[in-house]
Amino acid sequence: MSNSSRPTRATRTTIDDILSSQAGRRFFGDGPPNWRQGRNDQPAKTSELAVHERGLLAKALRRDGSAEALELAGRIDLCRRGRRCLSGACPACARAAQRVFVHACRNLFDGHGQEMVAVNVVCHWAGIDRGRLAEHEDIFEDTRGRLLDALADVAARAVGGFDISLNTHESDAFEPYWAPHVLIMAPARRLLRLGQDFRPWFPAGDDTPRPVRMSKFDGEARGFAYALKPDFSRRISLEPRLLADGSRSTFGTRGKPIGGASRVELALALDRAGLDARLFMRGYELVTSGGDVEIVPRTSSQGRASQQADQPGRTPSPR
Ligand SMILES: [Zn+2]
After folding, report:
1. N or C, which terminus of the chain has less Cβ within 10 Å?
2. What spacing in Å lies between the alpha carbon of 24 and ligand 1's midpoint?
């Protein structure tokens, strides 16, 4: 097939490339895209706050004092306009990467007839013991691999981002561990119909009673933004509590910031993985076209990903 069928000359790119280019400078600023977030509907993080957080992280890394931590502190301290550090740990660069993603997704919802689903996915076996992130070059690798297999099996495309939380228990019922998870957005019709085939790829675990949560996506920027949020949290599992009516409340969690040695451990892991490792795409590509950046459905050699699998589907193997 000739490549003349492509309507525009789009070039595949990466978040790193965008953020190190002249055109990428605007993502470090406070112009569009803008959105509100969180339960209190607050404005998204400002560039000023991200720079402040970068300073705090550099301090924490210096306090840690290991050779790796000192090296990373030196690098993020030098992150400036025109010479961005592009570390996955840098709060300023991670915020800019999130803003690239939100901007690049601007036409997806309408492009899919305003019918998309948001899917939260946890591979419970991809959890990593606290203190052992350093053994992983890419902490999202296991989750990514399984998600690619699952989407290939149902021949669906999806775009989104990886997150990781530190899971702890209020009365130490389990050892703290790192839990990678992913939030994807996908065209609704196919994934809703094939949801039954998709779910078995992600069996429930002891601390993961609902490994796949699928909901209708409203297309808002804040939804895309959440997929690549630049903040990470500690999730505290609570003991079941007796409610006033005598019934037992089920499993509950609260979120808190990650501090101390764990914060340094995570920063080093995010740095090793890089900014682009946070991004998940299947059947889409990040391209520049006409000086702007966009995530578009992939139409080239892969064929129509929404209608046919680009690789033979594999059956889920329970773990
Ligand atoms: Zn930076």
Report:
1. N
2. 13
